Amino acid sequence: MVLAMLRSMVYDKNAVDDLFQETMITAWRTLDRYDEERPFGPWLRGIARFQTLAYYRKVKRLPTFDHAKVVNHLETRFDEIATRPGDTWEEKIDALDDCLQRLPEDARNIVVLHYEQDLTTEVIATRLRTSREAVKKRLQRARARLTDCFERKGLFHKLEPKS
Q1: pTM for the full model?
Q2: pLDDT exceeds cutoff 90 at 89
């Protein structure tokens, strides 16, 4: 959600990457000031907001949008998302583990090789003695099955535009 907020306020991808890193560093350095009685997401996004304002001061440009209005809108949407099932890290990991276990073994192996072991499709193809295109197709099918599983669990929600 921090990245989504930064990307909606800054159009330079490199600047967004830098702002995200600065936000994480600042959060790490000030973690002792975080009030554990309050939600973590809004606190972290608050740091990102200050980083964004500092960025615009540094580049001596004004944002091309009403900063406060955009931030308030985003916070409202993020609050809506946070109240939905599957928002906590533990819920997401549990759902992913369950969905991975439901994949056929060959599909699960391809996902593990690519995403957990960080192997390229070329390396996987060589290891499995198949073509790179076959590996890419298997990954595509595995991702589709995982998406279907998440949808069945009610973890993907469409945000309806507000009237």
Answers
A1: 0.48
A2: no
